[in-house]
Each structure stands twice: as structure tokens, then as C-alpha cells.
Description:
This protein is of the alpha/beta class and 385 residues long. The protein is built from 12 helices and 13 strands.
Amino acid sequence: MRKVLLIATYDSFLNAGVEVAKNIENATVDIYIRKTKLNQLSDRQLSNIPNEYQINYFLFNKYKQIKFEKYDVIIISVANSVARVMISFLQKKKVTIGCNYIIISLFPGIIFGDIDSITSRIDSDILLCNNKYDTDIAKGIVTEYKLNTIVINYGFPQLQIIKKDNFRNSIYFIDQVKTPYDKRERLYILKQLIFLAMKFPEYNFFIKARVKKREVTVHNNLYPFEDLLKEIENIPNNFKITYVSTYECLKSAKLIIGINSTLLFESIANNIPTISLKVFGIRDNFYNKYFLNSGILYTFDEIDKMLLKDKIILEINNDFLNSFITYDSSRGEDLCKIINERILHKKEKVLYNNQIIKFNNKKIINLSSILKTLINIYYFFKSKI
């Protein structure tokens, strides 16, 4: 059995790491969650973890107390600064005490080629990238600096290709807590969705919220849609706020709307019509400049016209698909193959080194015996003189 250790922090990091761990064959998994605040993960967010996985918590200044050396694979799913420190420490530990674990790092969501995100993980043994765009940058760094890192276009770790419902009439807006952050902008989205729900009663409209109003997690939502809903007088029956899983959302979706959520990319990968709202312009903090000319940027008026025609057909740019959606379809098998080969290579190396040590020890013993014999002969003849 492979012994796997997952180091994680918040919900998205934890979920992504768990999905990678699930793909490692014949593995027992221990999870160590970096403690950053009280109740950083709710019971609902922890409910997706398999029961057989052991969960522990640690403070960052105590991470060196973890017994890393007893694991075959260590998955690092944390923020950039922590990833950089931990990967550097683990690589040094390999050299100083001869550990044989394999370090895997990943990205829990879309990073759009962010250099700091990539370089903070580039010294891993295996780096799992989310798309070709990030993969090409990471491979370029590996080549330029002659690193030994294996870079895989793994796709989003949590991505599932879902068997969709035959009849789908649900339209979801994906809430990201802080995108948009401004109250007026969030209220505008809410009013526009309710307007569409009233105009098109044949569809069910949902806001898929990331956290519940009183749910204590690391995500602090200053303007929850539940509160903003109180400012609306007439709420149609076909409009609701929901907390369903990504799986349930994609399974029943006729259309997914958002701004820059990773779920938009999961939706496109599942061939579900997907829209990124451009109603607030192109902004750095929205990261929607990468959607320019992609074929997924629309306004609420344009969505209205699509629903009026009952035709939601989007033509997505092929370059955008190739850069941000495509991934290695055999990713799970490829990862296991690399892990198995590396573990086998490390065992052979250890065995080889042990044989050398035994051989050298035997040589020393033989030389010692010869020297001892020569000394005895010398003293024997000396006594006869």
C-alpha cells in the first residue's frame, strides 16, 4: 500500500488535493490541514472527504514535527507562500536524511499562468497544471533552469465529466463571495436574475452560493445574497438560492453564468453553455481579460435574447479551448505510472547503495584480516631473531 500525505488549507485546496489522492492506486491517505483560523472549514465542506481518510490539524510553525519520512507520496495543496516554504523544506529533508517520498503540488483553481503561483511549486517532483496555458509556462521554466520536475497537463483536479439529466431547465449563477465585492454590483446581479426568472417562468433560476449565511469558514461574505434578497419585494417561485454541490449543479444545468469561477471551466469541459458576465467591464481583479475573444463574454440583455429565442448556442474560440480547457485525458493513469516508476527507481537506488555499502564493508573486513595476518608474521619472525 502506498502511504499518501495531503497537506491542505481551505475548501478548494482540500477538495482538489483529495481528488488527486483518490487517483493514486492502493493508497492510504492522511490529511493534515494547516490551521489558520477557528472553524475555517465547516462540517458541510468536510463532508466530501472519504471516511477512511485520517484528518489532522497543524499550525504552520509546527509543520516540521510531521513525520514526512514515513510517506511515499506527499501532496501539497496550499497557498503560494506556504507551498514555497514547505516544498523547499521537503526537498532539503530528502537530501539530509535520505527520504524517498515523491512531492506533488497542484493548483486548486484557475491561475491564468500566474508566475508566482507556478514558481512557488516548480521545485516539486511532479507539478500538476490545470491547462495547456499553465503547462507550457511551467515546462518553459523547467527547461530554462534544467530542473527535474515532471509537469503534467492534469486539468482541474476536481473536474468530473458528468452524466447530465435528460431534461435540464435550470440556470445557475455562480457566486464567488468577493467577485463582485461591491454591494451595488451584487444587488444588480440579483435584480437582473430575478427579472429573467419573472420573464421566463419555464426555467428555474438559482444562485449557487459558496457559503451559507451563518456558516463560519475562511470566506467572509460581507453582502450575502440571502441578505440582499430582503431588499426585493416580489420574488418569483422559480428563483432560489442553493448550496448544491458542483456535481448536482452541472447535472441539471441548461446554462451556467458567472464572472471568472473555476466552475465556468468545468462547465465548458462538460459541454454546458457557459457565460462570463461582462456587465462590469474588463478588470484585473476579475481576471476576465483572458476571456476576450473567447466567445463566452455576454451581458444580461444578450442572455435575455437567447432565452427569448430558446436557443443557447455559444461558439467558443478554439484557441481559448486549447489553452484553458483541454487536458491529458489519461491523467489519472499517467500520474500513477509516474509515481510507480519513481518509487521503483528510488527502491532500486537504495538497494544499489546498500549493496555498495555491504561490498565496501566486506572489502574493509578482508583488508583488515590481511593486515592483521601480516602484523602477526612480522612479530613472529622478530621474536626468532
